[in-house]
Amino acid sequence: MFKNVVTDVFFDLDHTLWDFERNSALTFEKIFQENAIEVALPDFLEVYIPANFAFWKLYREEKISKEDLRYQRLKSVFDDLKYPVPDETINKLSDEYIRYLSSFNHLFPNATEILDYLKPKYKLHIITNGFQEVQEKKLKNSNIYGYFNQIIDSEMAGVKKPDPFIFELALRRADARPENSLMIGDNLEADILGAQAVGYHALHFNAHQGPKHDFCEIIDDLHEIKTFL
Questions:
Q1: Strand, coil or helix: what is 217?
Q2: Contact call for residues 87 and 72 (beta carbons, < 8 A)
Q3: What's the pTM value of the predicted model, to 2 decimals?
């Protein structure tokens, strides 16, 4: 579908290549054990995962700061679980979570295989809303850093997806044209609609088993990218 059109493929990182939920769970397991947090991990994650998505949406919309995101996503969950945790401990957990998160390196199935397939044919890049200090470590620790020509993060750009500027910056850095560029990501609002607004083609990786839509083609496994490229 895109084989004779696309020269540059832009990937989101978290929830698209890097298995955020799995690595996040392992990180919480580690820091809860080290800090004697006596909350069952499945109970915590059941509340934390949707809360984290909600706070990230507020962060993308510039409604909360990075510091608020890191604090409130933990504070709100412990409050919901009726498990009192002092602010000092919440801040410590928040710092340790960021410190250890990138030490876990699970990728989605077929991530490395599809990068191996694409690398000889296209220029590959990353556009991520993640924090700069963490994203590079994730890429390096999971052994995929070398696949990408340009790595654009929201702290570098000064804005977050779906702001058009981050997609335009990525095009300039990659020396690419939007009509020859494909964005692959998991978030319909941030990745797909954001990229399409600037003129990219888009492919939605339905990592969260969300509802079907007609904005672009949808894939459920990364190996399906071969159907389009």
A1: strand
A2: no
A3: 0.93
